[in-house]
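The material for today's practical consists of a large collection of protein records. Backbone structure tokens are a discrete shorthand for how the chain folds in space. An example says more than a description, so a record of this kind follows:
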Amino acid sequence: MSNDKLTNGNQVPDGRSPVEERKEFKLTSFSIDHRISVLVILFLAVLFGVQSYLNIPKEAAPDITIPNIMVITTYPGVSPEDMES
């Protein structure tokens, strides 16, 4: 154990970091291992999305009602131009 360091109970040679157990995200590992499958799934999702967008019923001129608000004020002796400003 002359040139070895003791790290987390494991002996490792100098200059190298200890190998740790790492948690693996299975979806990422699957995506890296199966690139073509992921591209095919992505292509199908885009294709179905475009198809769905094109098949949504659309109205050429929808009825839009713009709300109107009327404010009435009384101020005796003032002209309408002064009330407006």
